[in-house]
Amino acid sequence: MRVSNFFLILLVNLGEICVAILNSGPSYRNGGDILPRFASQPNTFSAVIGDTIVLPCEVQNLGSFVIVWKRGITLLTAGQQKITADPRISLVGYNLEVRDIRYSDQGDYTCQIGDGSHGDLIHTVEILMPPSIQIFPNNGDVLTTRKGATVSFECRASGNPTPVVQWSKKEGLLPSGLQVQTGYLLSLTNVQREDAGAYQCTASNGIGQAVTGEIKLHVLFPPEITVAKSWVNSGEGLEARLDCVVQADPPGEVSWYQNSFPLQQTDRRIMSSKGKIYTLTIKNVQFSDFGNYSCTVHNSIGKDRKYIELTGKPGPARIISPAYSNPDYYDLRWVVQSVLPIIEVKILYRRINATTFYDHKGQWHDLVIKPEQKYDAKTSERLQSFRITNLVPDSLYECLILTKNQHGYSDVSDVHQWFSSDKGRPFVGSTGQIHCLGIAVMILLQIPNVLL
Fold it and tell me: Could you tell me whether strands 44-48 and 120-136 are parallel, antiparallel, or unpaired per DSSP bridges?
């Protein structure tokens, strides 16, 4: 039996500890080689900052050999002797324990038998880091741009594992129509005023809590005007209100015009605003107040103009009757906006010859009537009706309506068409849908001379 000589020499010089590990050669026992070998396997250990990890180093047939732990070229332990001054590092048997893990502890740790001629065991320590982000422009900043421009936001994330970065808009969808978009870069092209708002970048990797940053986008744009009613009906002695809804950033200056002439505020003509709604109120309307009005808005980027007509005449009739009738009569119903009573109604209707295409030369029937009316003061609408008789069954009809108050006739209504059902045969199915007559109709509307 031959046993190798192994010496551990500690040299103390000026307070420094130097370690020399000597191995005189291989070990032989009973005429054969019995070499030490590792029972542990190399592994990667993941830890969060503050954790404690134990790196295993189990060796079989160690004999008189010494276990050495190193990190890189730095010696940590030799045998049961701790070399490093780091109080967080200690031996548990031959296993290496590291407490209160720091980010700087990541890397390779080597368990070595003697001088390393019998191999070594390498463990890797990786530190799991919760995500952190850096946003450009800076987190919380407000980025100002103009309508139509292109802007880009960046969200650089770090952490281990690599975080997933997603963009979202705090209120609503992204301009692309997506709820979220993955990637560090968010680019917005042809920016519109609706794109203004807070954009959020969120990074997550399953370690700790996800982190979120925010950038606000401020979009400057020229004025955009909408009018709820481009036609306003009123009467002499009454009050009229004209509204323009204005969107503009920076805020614009609003001016009112009548027939292209600028208006000034008076006791009877009042200009006001509430939020984005700009109002021209005309009290005790006079005949000279009727005409075309416009509201104009301009700011440093551009301008816009919208028109509103103020008139005493009724609005066009809106026919609300169904598209079918009994075989020989039809109850025609319509609504017209007029603050003043309707004094006369003109109805024109005709039967369409639908046996061939383009054949629309049926005779117009011209009725002038004075039907009753039901007035709704909230909407200034008047409901009227009239029964048209002596219809031809199983036929297609069309009609037009004009209404008149003391200021004159309205514009002509839209063309309204209906079918008269065949005698003895229901025309409307159980679903309320109209059964087809089995004929194709193409209509070329000809306004009768009586309207001209």
Answer: parallel
